[in-house]
Design a protein that fits this description.
The chain is of the alpha/beta class. About 30% of the residues lie in helices and about 20% in strands. Helix 2 crosses helix 3 and helix 6 crosses helix 7. It is globular, with a radius of gyration of 21 Å. InterPro entries: AMP-binding_CS, AMP-dep_synth/lig_dom, ANL_N_sf, Beta-ala_Activ/Resist.
């Protein structure tokens, strides 16, 4: 039987997984025992209200209890979808064209804004109290408002294999019209396990959640930490746009693994990159660029100190392949100064198993073995 995302957590006996949340004023920490207790609380409530194999919508910000929420949903064999807090109604309606969504978990601080934008067929059903954090469970009733998605029939695109789903996510639209992607466990789990092995991640590592929750690399970041039993560092979204604050977190938490866009890394400033992040005595073991064209070889050479030991990777993928299709380790001694020489190369064993199956234009469900489905011939050349 194929492993699930929850198996990556539950099979890690004696796990030392922990979560640290830095806000603008303080640092909060959740150890494995505390997290596990919260996972049980969430799963017990969902079990009493929602049938297994449901899709649970989430209006949740990056925070200390984020892993608990995700794992609580997965424990009851349901799947999750993160909805856009800035556009609650539009986000929900788009998902509900294809997915039956009857339960939503809303962070208490977001409840007022979310409810103002939703149809009144959504009712508060229960509260989940996790220490100093509260989640409101909203449940939808039958609706006769023709503008509400709960009054409409689903388009015939929802997977018949919904019991195998891990999560649902919407593409950004960079490769065409935005699509609702239904991701089975057996597609995302191999991606996580493969990267965990390539990056040699252990319980001693400290990973930072850099990606937004509506961007699928966030799943990789969270479950690399969960499966390896290491520390996951989370910061509020606004803090990521303040380089000085983000630098403080990276330094104070001794981050050893960073998966991020080149834009985010470069926003920290060349001085910090050269003098700290990629210095001779840097704590950073792994720097994986993804989501955008990788910086040029020339630029990376300028950044990296001569005796720096950080391994640098170029990741490429489409949401449809859940999540990274290729992984290339950059060796500055072997690569020329030309950025064009830097290319992503998919492992041979995956190329041999590229599936041809596409379901329809609205929903794409990758085959279980795929890491390279839909990969275009020159898609991962570095600009």
């Amino acid at each position: 039987m194929a492993l699930t995302l929850y198996d990556l957590y539950s099979n890690n006996k004696g796990s030392t997984f922990s979560c640290i949340f830095y806000d603008f004023k303080s640092k909060l920490k959740l150890n494995y025992k505390q997290n596990h207790s919260h996972v049980s609380e969430i799963s017990e409530l969902l079990n009493s209200i929602s049938p297994a194999k449901s899709v649970i919508g989430c209006f949740i910000s990056p925070g200390l209890y984020l892993p608990s929420v995700i794992l609580g949903i997965l424990k009851v064999r349901s799947s999750f979808v993160f909805l856009d807090v800035q556009k609650p109604c539009a986000s929900l309606n788009n998902i509900q064209k294809y997915v039956a969504l009857k339960i939503i978990l809303v962070e208490e601080s977001l409840l007022k804004a979310v409810k103002e934008d939703l149809c009144n067929c959504w009712h508060e059903k229960n509260n989940i109290f996790l220490s100093n954090f509260s989640i409101i469970l909203l449940q939808s009733m039958d609706c006769h408002n023709y503008q509400c998605s709960n009054s409409k029939k689903l388009l015939p695109n929802f997977s018949k294999n919904s019991s195998k789903l891990a999560y649902i996510i919407q593409t950004s639209g960079t490769t065409g019209e935005p699509k609702i992607i239904q991701v089975p466990h057996q597609c995302i789990v191999p991606n996580i396990l493969d990267l965990r092995q390539k990056f040699n991640i252990s319980s001693k590592d400290v990973l930072m959640l850099c990606s937004p929750l509506t961007f699928d690399p966030s799943i990789i970041e969270i479950f690399l930490a969960v499966s390896a039993g290491c520390t996951l560092v989370i910061v509020p979204t606004p803090l990521k746009s303040i380089p000085k604050k983000l630098i403080e977190v990276i330094i104070n938490s001794n981050v050893s693994v960073l998966q991020a866009t080149p834009t985010l890394i470069q926003s920290l400033g060349e001085d910090f990159i050269k003098d700290v992040l990629l210095s001779e005595n840097s704590n950073l073991r792994i720097l994986a660029f993804g989501g955008e064209p990788c910086p040029s070889i020339d630029k990376i050479k300028r950044w990296k100190a001569k005796d720096n030991k950080t391994r640098i990777f170029n990741l490429y993928g489409l949401t449809e392949v859940s999540c990274w299709a290729t992984c290339f380790e950059i060796n500055l001694e072997e690569n020329s100064q030309s950025s064009a020489a830097l290319r992503c190369v998919a492992p041979r064993e995956y190329i041999d198993r590229i599936p041809q199956k596409r379901r329809n234009d609205a929903t794409i469900i990758p085959d279980p073995v795929t890491l390279v489905q839909l990969l275009r011939k020159d898609a991962c050349a570095v600009a």
